[in-house]
């Protein structure tokens, strides 16, 4: 499965990664690549926990990018 990840750099320079379709699934890293690695692990653990508790696994969110002239 593929999940959309929102990645933002905070005021301290730390990259924060969040998965909108998995409430509370947030991680961070000192670099963009480390934040992405950490959120991948967080997603795997999140889904593993859902399975252990017989909870439904939320489907990934489909997303389109639309370009507009500014």
Fold and architecture overview:
The protein has 70 residues and is of the alpha+beta class. The protein has one helix and three strands, in the order E-E-E-H. Strands 1-2-3 form a three-stranded antiparallel sheet, covered by helices on one side. It starts with 5 loop residues before the first strand and ends in an 18-residue tail after the last helix. The model has no long low-confidence stretch (mean pLDDT 93).
Summary, kept brief:
This protein has 70 residues and is α+β, with helices and mostly antiparallel strands. It has one helix at 32-52; strands spanning 6-9, 15-18, 26-29.
Keywords:
single chain; 70 residues; alpha+beta; 1 helix; 3 strands; 17% strand; flat
Structural class: alpha+beta
> What is the multimeric organization of the chains shown?
single chain
**How many helix segments?**
1
Radius of gyration: 14 Å
State the shape: flat
Order of SSEs: EEEH
Cross-sheet strand order for the largest sheet: 1-2-3
Mean pLDDT: 93
Count of beta strands: 3
Low-confidence segments, given as residue ranges, are none
Q: How much of the sequence is in beta strands?
A: 15-25%
End-to-end distance: 34 Å
The biggest sheet amounts to: 3 strands, antiparallel
Helix content: 25-40%
């Amino acid at each position: 499965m593929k999940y959309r990840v929102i990645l933002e750099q905070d005021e301290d320079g730390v990259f924060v990664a969040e998965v909108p379709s998995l409430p509370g699934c947030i991680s961070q890293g000192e670099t963009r690549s480390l934040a992405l690695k950490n959120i991948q692990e967080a997603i795997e653990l999140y889904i593993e926990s859902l399975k252990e508790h017989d909870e439904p696994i939320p489907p990934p969110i489909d997303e389109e990018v639309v370009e507009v002239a500014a």
